[in-house]
């Protein structure tokens, strides 16, 4: 798959690598964000800045699609993969913004565990994207993303159970649950990207 690419076709993969690399950095900052209380506003600003960079890369990919006829795989799949990866970046930015807006000033149960799962997922996605020429590697990395999503579900459900069992402050409960919901949805979005990568691979092998 994709063994013989022209320089113009290879450019798409360079863009995808750049895009997912930025998302990995965002996920690393997200983990840093949940590692200390109060939440670091400078880290939040860095995450927002990286999300803008992801938007710029996505725009470059779309512009290239509009200007070129030959692509390494279906144009619709290139666009879909771009949008899905960008969706993960959007989720990470929204998560940081929610912490900033809600002014959550206490430790959030299991947030560090979930942020670690998110980081591990995007690193697996990065590995899958950089190894698109190797079927076994792609399948292994995408499976790892799915396994991590299942792990996140367990963490999320157990944490929610504890939250509901210990509601002392309604407003604080809402803030915590809101952030946890967003983290869980981010792991779901990573799974969607992994599924799409596998679909593209199967269509083009």
Task: Give structural notes.
- The protein is mainly α.
- The chain contains six helices and no strands.
- Helix 1 packs antiparallel against helix 4, helix 4 packs antiparallel against helix 5 and helix 4 packs parallel to helix 6.
- The protein is globular, with a radius of gyration of 18 Å.
- The N terminus is likely disordered.
CATH architecture: Up-down Bundle
- What is the mean predicted local confidence, pLDDT? 92
| CATH fold node name | Methane Monooxygenase Hydroxylase, Chain G, domain 1
CATH class: Mainly Alpha
How large is the radius of gyration? 18 Å
Helix-strand string: HHHHHH
Largest sheet: none
Point out poorly predicted stretches: 1-7
Features:
disordered N terminus, mainly alpha, Methane Monooxygenase Hydroxylase, Chain G, domain 1
How would you sum up this structure in a few lines?
The protein has 205 residues and is mainly α.
Give the topology, please:
Blueprint (H helix, E strand, L loop, with lengths): L6 H27 L7 H27 L7 H28 L8 H20 L4 H31 L4 H35 L1
């Amino acid at each position: 798959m994709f063994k013989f690419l022209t320089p113009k076709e290879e450019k798409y993969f360079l863009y995808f690598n750049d895009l997912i690399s930025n998302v990995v950095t965002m996920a690393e900052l997200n983990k840093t964000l949940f590692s200390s209380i109060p939440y670091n506003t400078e880290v939040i600003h860095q995450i927002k800045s990286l999300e803008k960079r992801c938007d710029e890369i996505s725009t470059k990919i779309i512009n290239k699609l509009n200007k070129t006829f030959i692509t390494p795989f279906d144009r619709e799949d290139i666009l879909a993969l771009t949008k899905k990866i960008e969706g993960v970046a959007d989720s990470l930015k929204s998560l940081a913004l929610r912490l900033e807006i809600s002014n959550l000033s206490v430790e959030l149960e299991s947030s560090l565990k979930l942020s670690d799962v998110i980081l591990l997922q995007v690193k697996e996605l990065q590995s899958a994207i950089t190894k698109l020429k190797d079927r076994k590697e792609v399948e292994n990395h995408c499976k790892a993303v799915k396994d991590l999503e299942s792990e996140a579900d367990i963490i999320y459900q157990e944490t929610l159970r504890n939250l509901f069992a210990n509601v002392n402050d309604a407003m604080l409960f809402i803030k915590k649950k809101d952030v946890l919901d967003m983290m869980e949805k981010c792991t779901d979005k990573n799974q969607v990207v992994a599924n799409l990568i596998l679909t593209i691979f199967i269509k083009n092998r």
